[in-house]
Amino acid sequence: MALTTSPRGTADIFGDNLNNWLKLEQIIRKICRTYGYQEIRTPIFEHTELFERGIGDTSDIVEKEMYTFTDRGDRSITLRPEGTAPVVRAFLEHRMDQGPLPVKLFYLGPMFRYERPQAGRYRQFHQFGLEVLGSDDPLLDVETILLPIELYKTCGLEGFVVELNSIGCPECRARYRDDLKEFIRPHLQDMCSSCQNRFERNPMRLLDCKREGCRKVLADAPVILDYLCDDCADHFAKVRAYLDALSVNYVLNPKLVRGFDYYTRTVFEVTYAGLGAQNAIGAGGRYDGLVEEVGGTHTPAVGFAVGVERLLLALESEGGFKAAAPRPDAFVVQFGGQTKMKAAQLVYELRQAGLQAELDYLDRSVRAQFKAANRINAKWVLILGEEELEAGKVKLRNMDEGTEELVDLSEIIQYMQSREE
């Protein structure tokens, strides 16, 4: 184990890359505010049973990917692999259902899954997601599709595709599962081991298999849309009607099922072909039974999540999303002795006034200090020599224009602020 290497599947975020992250987070928070969503920050770890009951014990996440351990109190704890179940737990614990409905929440933070690392897929990754709890209005299904679309467009992403389906309610799915199993049974031996293992427990998950042999078997399988009950069919028709009225482009994908067991009715996924096989940059849907499954009363809900790393990778491939590196306002050049003491005071005063100011901490020459100011792209260099100090002035150099002027030390902050306006 190399102490100077991060664990496999993790990454350090800094420099220009971090600036892109911060820009994306700023856009996310602005859009969520316009849609009326409040931020929530749930714990990094939860009780394991929350994910076992919420996500479903036949999902890949629960079966293979969770980071689970026993703590010193002999409790089974899991690092959160997704954000919906923790939000539902918080919704119940803090009795948000007793307040105004629907409750609209968004989150942004790290998740953990033991996956095979590859481009855009990490073992510690980050998700932006939102949840709406307390209403079964189809318009909210549409809102959870509109918001990520607005995010992608605001970031400058083009060429993404919205795929849409309905997987109905438990009653719809019971009839569909029976017929789907009868269709698959004669071909089961031709399918992969994962599909064979899931056949009895959750046959709909077979539709999500990416192996070519399994996809070939399922090419002519029955589709869930033909099995929707009247209520589910009506709900989905309204979702599509709203999308059409709002001129939202989407593709109907009757084999889209998603990987979590808690989904009901509307499901959707946003894909971007430029990422190759792992092309999903966002997904979500309705989960009307999850709150009840976790221990609450029946509460309809809908939400979605976006993988931040995957989205940034897509934006990088198009080359249009690059945050400007922040520029320090000032670099104070000093000549040692009393000028360094005064420079320390001046930098402190500049920072107190809200200006980003730097100075030399390595006892470098004046020439080297100017080079340092250039490297960090400072807007101004404040030159504080013995003569300037004695006269109560500072020499101010505009690094963009190459001009210099003497300014009274007592007026330097006000002068710089006026030039920023």
CA radius of gyration is 28 Å
> Averaged pLDDT, please?
92
What quaternary form is this? Answer: single chain
**Order of strands in the sheet with the most strands?**
1-5-6-11-10-9-7-8
Largest sheet: 8 strands, mixed
Q: Note poorly predicted spans.
A: none
Helix content bin = 25-40%
Count of spatially separate domains: 2
CATH superfamily annotation of the largest domain: Bira Bifunctional Protein, Domain 2
Distance between the termini: 53 Å
Structure description:
This protein is of the alpha+beta class. 38% of the residues lie in helices and 21% in strands. It folds into two domains: 15-169 and 229-318, Bira Bifunctional Protein, Domain 2 (BirA Bifunctional Protein, domain 2), CATH 3.30.930.10; 330-420, Anticodon-binding domain (Rossmann fold). An eight-stranded mixed sheet has the order 1-5-6-11-10-9-7-8, sandwiched between helices. Strands 13-12-14-15-16 form a five-stranded mixed sheet, with helices on both faces. The chain has a three-stranded antiparallel sheet with strand order 2-4-3. Helix 5 runs parallel beside helix 9. The two termini are 53 Å apart. 36% of the residues are buried. The mean pLDDT is 92.
Keywords:
16 strands, 421 residues, Rossmann fold, alpha+beta, BirA Bifunctional Protein, domain 2, 2 domains
